[in-house]
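FORM 7B: Structural annotation worksheet

SECTION A. Query
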Amino acid sequence: MNPPLSSFLPVFLYLSSFGAIFFDSVQALSIREASISDIQLAFKQNQLTSEQLTEFYLGEIHRLNPVLRGVIEVNPDALHQACKADWKRKAKPNGSLPVLHGIPILLKDTIGTKDKLNTTAGSFALLGSVVAHDAGVVARLRKAGAVILGKASLSEWANIRSSKAPVGWSARGGQGKNPYVLSATPCGSSSGPAISVAANMVAVSLGTETDGSILCPASFNSVVGIKPTVGLTSRAGVVPVTPRQDTIGPLCRTVSDAVYVLDAIVGYDHNDGATREASKYIPRGGYRQFLKAQGLQRKRLGIVRDPFFNFTNKPDQALAFQNHFQTLRHAGAGLVDNLKIDNIDIILNSVASGEAIATLAELKINLNAYLKALVVSPVRSLADVIAFNQNNSKLELTDQIGQDIFLASEATNGIGNAEKSALSSLANLSRNGFEKLMKQYNLDAIVTPGFEVAPVLAIGGFPAISVPAGYDNKGVPFAICFGGLKGSEPKLIEIAYSFEQATKVRKPPSFKP
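SECTION B. Predicted structure
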């Protein structure tokens, strides 16, 4: 029998007014809400070790995860990795170690690790499969000294299995819960990374996005999500949907933490050709140099009200954004209001835009290639996965949830005329819509609420940052989203960080029923 949720919130876990880390009279470590900078300072001052930090997060997972279902499995070698990080820190007391050294991180369960962890996309169909090597981003995290704490839950198969599947649900992980309001959606598909960071079950996390899968859970779980330009981070070794839109990015409690993770994972990977072209966008000296409190000065921000700013029956959100616009202006930004993206109704309709047609064909091609490349796997093709689900309906709840998207994808036959036409349509919609608007008004970013702009950014491979913007009258979080052209991460980071520092909206979760 699990203890009541109230017991998960011990009174000693409050923030010191002078920092997020301290020891009380019985040496109980409080690291709830601690940032990477807080943790690294504690490491430096010998107040904390990576082993202690990892033990703390493992304990929080043990207590909270039976309710929140944000984590699928923990790494049996996590404490060993943490001890190695501590040893290396002692061996180099005055040396320069990467900012992520000794920091635990959770990975969405589509991101492959060549270790004792499974990589299953939340499905029993891939349980026991073995990847050939670490995903490109995981190799970079290991090089940076991060502790791979485990795999976070998700909407099964990155929410591409069935149109009827509950958001945040997977067969292996169960139903993820929003830590602010348990009955509210956690959103997906990167629900687990967002839940886990929001609830302080880990310091930082890594998710993936094809269309909204970072921006949506970031918004609903009151965390920061960075959706990088497609190709800026390697997708090699990650369960794919479509490389045309797939991207890997951080979900963290602060913009600075997300930027530290981004710095660690960007760069060229010979196993992902898209990273060659996108590498030209990476600034010399990395991204942390753009964490500027005055970053909103002289920025031109476009406000796209139609159809995104529809606050019918949401007066609290309407008021919040009215205040946020004032904050943006006071911080030195110029706002260009009432802008319209051409053909926005078509773009937001995945069938009309061609996104659905193209993605269904690309899913089959790329998932088959991923499954065939596994060293060991119970399934080797999308057809095998469909058959597994049908033969194990009790495990995968196939009778209730179905797999209509998988079936539609399996029915495709490569990139034919219909798919080529769809791809051409998507390119034209991006060029004559979002790109045209950005260039016509000389914008640094557009500003929208929540995550509804995701398809606009997805079909063109554009980046965005989601920052907590408030809570509705039930306590459910909502966000502000800043989106830009390819390679505009430096500007977006300046904007997002400056907004965050001016507002400091985020608060710890309340675990309301």
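SECTION C. Observations
Residues 1-29 have pLDDT under 50 and may be disordered. The domain at 35-513 is CATH 3.90.1300.10 (Amidase signature (AS) enzymes).

SECTION D. Sign-off
Analyst initials: ____
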